[in-house]
Amino acid sequence: ATGRIGSYLCSLLLEEGYKVIGYSRGLQSSYKNLRKYKNYSFFIKEREDAIEHAINTGAEVICDLLAYNEEDAKYLYNKLLSSGKIGTIRLIIIGSIWVYGNVNGIVDELSLRNAKESYGKNKALMEAFFLDKFRTNHLKVTIIHPGHVCGKEWFPVNAQGNRNEAILNEFKRGNPIFLPNYGKTTLQDFT
Predict the structure, then answer these.
(1) How many alpha carbons lie under 13 Å from residue 54 in its C-beta half-sphere?
(2) What is the DSSP letter of 155?
(3) How far apart are the first and last CA of the chain?
(4) How many CA atoms are closer than 13 Å to the CA of 11, on its beta-carbon side?
(5) 63-122, pLDDT tens digit by residue?
């Protein structure tokens, strides 16, 4: 909850009124910014203890930012299985665009996983495990493939291909945004 993704995600959820329990392996400065929210709790715990604590405190969603391989996936799955919470807790897992290997062009969820290095290969094995459990055991899981990491003070590249924060704010409000080349450069139409 204190790293680049976690601190950004926690802030967004808290601003929308959600109750958030944040975990970190160590205290970092971004925690100070989240303390102002009444619906935020924070614990310093290693990943395994954080997973167990989240399950035992009735979490509806667990966002695991520290699953890097199949062993990490199995640990989380087995904790859910032994608690009887399969199908009741939604998992959000951070995969990686590197599961696709070196690609030219746009990839989608059906694109071949062809990782070339150990990080991508391990993320692909983790993803395959979770997707198998989704198909066979009704595991509720969402896997996100970020191309780059963003967070507070490290704003993501928007659909226009720049870091103009106003563009994302307009998009979140449902207002039109204008894209170069009719959006064909930075977005893919799946319709």
Answers:
(1) 29
(2) P
(3) 35
(4) 16
(5) 998 999 999 999 999 999 999 999 999 999 999 888 988 777 777 788 889 998 999 999
Q: What is the pLDDT of residues 2-32, one digit of tens each?
A: 777 888 888 889 999 999 999 988 876 665 6
* Spatial contact of 26 and 50, defined as CB atoms under 8 Å apart: no
Interacting residues of 15 by C-beta distance below 8 A, sequence separation 6+:
none
Please state, in angstroms and rounded to a whole number, the distance separating the CA atoms of residues 128 and 109.
Answer: 12
- The Cα 120–Cα 107 span in angstroms is 15
Question: Distance (Å, rounded) from C-alpha 153 to C-alpha 84?
Answer: 39
Phi, psi of 64 (to 5 degrees): -95, 110
Neighbour count for residue 55 (Cβ, 10 Å): 19
Q: Please name the amino acid found at residue 157.
A: V
Burial of 50 (0-12, 13-18, 19+ CB in 10 A): buried
User: Are β-strands 61-64 and 40-44 bridged in parallel, bridged antiparallel, or unpaired?
Assistant: unpaired
β-bridge partners, 20: 40
- Tokens 């979770």 belong to 130
Amino acid at 170: E
